[in-house]
Amino acid sequence: MTDVTSAVAGTSTAQSSVTSSAKSVITSDFETFIKMLTTQAKYQDPLEPLDSTEYSAQLAQFSMVEQQVQGNNLLESMAAQLGMSNMAALSSWVGMEARAVAPAAFDGVNPVTVAPNPPALADSVKMDVKNEAGTIVNTITLPVSAEAYQWDGTDADGSPVAAGNYTFEIRSYDTLGELALSEQAEVYTRVSETQMVGGEVVLITGSGQAILASSVTALREPQA
């Protein structure tokens, strides 16, 4: 499974690279324009000086470039402040249980709440429980319903599995018994921290997993 923090960081790096590149081009053009204007004024023919109208037009272009650079800097500052504001607002999520597509931390005792949400047209639904190595430890037949399912932490033989992170793959079949859809289920996991990663608010779960705050579809009080 792709690590969300790495994915966000990778996207951030790419975006930052593009932004820095664009800013570098504007700054370069800005400096080049100054040099050209200075050189033009320095070496103009005294007998045929630069037309005042043309000179004014060039000064106007100079002002536009300067304003563009300053505008970009202001937008970057506002974006950073907005991101910090969002993180502060979501700090109240710490200690809550958020529902999102992510690995669930099984502590060896308490059940894991899974939100299967299969398509309504499915004829039958099965759920594969996978450990951190991606090995299927249990396959469970579920009703065609969006009702939450409590996985009790047992394998196909009914024996308790080891504590760790588990994912839940939902397989929906049509009336002909053919696979119609396979997707990872959402789970409820406790939020222990909020972070800013590349302009995105990221939630760190109790198991150390990272999920985007924008991917959360539900929030609830911790279940006993």
Structure class = alpha+beta
CATH class of the domain at 105-185: Mainly Beta
What would CATH call the architecture of the domain at 105-185?
Sandwich
The whole-angstrom Rg is: 28 Å
Tell me the series of helices and strands, N- to C-terminal: HHEEEEEEEEEEEE
Extended strand count: 12
Fraction in helix: 25-40%
Mean pLDDT: 78
| Low-pLDDT residue intervals, each spanning 5 or more residues | 11-19
Shape: elongated
Largest sheet: 7 strands, antiparallel
Description of the molecule:
With 224 residues, the protein is of the alpha+beta class. It has a domain at 105-185: Immunoglobulin-like, CATH 2.60.40. It contains two helices and twelve strands. The strands form two sheets. Strands 1, 3, 6, 9, 10, 11 and 12 form a seven-stranded antiparallel sheet that branches. Strands 2, 4, 5, 7 and 8 form a five-stranded antiparallel sheet that branches. Helix 1 runs antiparallel to helix 2. The chain is elongated, with a radius of gyration of 28 Å.
Question: Tags for this entry?
Answer:
7-stranded antiparallel sheet, Immunoglobulin-like, elongated, alpha+beta, 224 residues
In short:
The chain is an alpha+beta fold.
Question: How are the SSEs ordered, and which strands pair?
Answer:
Elements: H1 4-42, H2 52-90, E1 97-101, E2 104-106, E3 112-115, E4 124-130, E5 136-142, E6 149-151, E7 164-173, E8 179-184, E9 186-197, E10 200-205, E11 210-212, E12 218-220
